Request: fold
Amino acid sequence: MAEDKHRKKADALFGQIALKLGIITRKQLEEALAVQRTSNQHKPLGLILMDLKYVSERDLERIIEAQKAIASQAESRAKAVREDTLFGKVAIRLGLCSEEQLAECLVMQEQLPKDRFMRLGDIMVIKGVLTVDQVRKILDTQRGLILYCPQCDTQYNVVMFRPGASIQCYRCGTALRIPARMTSEEEALRSEE
Reply:
């Protein structure tokens, strides 16, 4: 069931990209989708469009490249959101903003169109909640609190671990070592845990 949902989502994205790039018309997409629905086995939309001679191999490559770019953009945005979550926690712990101010800025961030993503620190400066220097202080503190796996780029909030401890990346199994030295702000944050 989940695989079927994923296929439908991938086919829908493929069709939307093909339309947006002007490779196919709405009528051609509808015809290909009708062929797909009547097929006994699932066949990817791209192959059906090729069978119908509506897309060439080169067109297929262009659409797939656009899909990859969208997936990469979504992954980058998700990573930024995770980092912004820690940014907000650090800002509150350092006493630089209130929870209400943070919540208001997070709502603003969520309401932005997908193609106009802004980092939380930028939003907080625009709203007058933080100064540029305060954002730098938070980012400096935050850098010391995040450990990235060198193999798979999974990030870990080191506040949760003892300095100098070794852990294993839950995603790829790489051995990681928590830094032994911390700044005074990081030590203050850790002592609050």
About this structure: Strands lie at 146-148, 155-157, 166-168, 175-177.
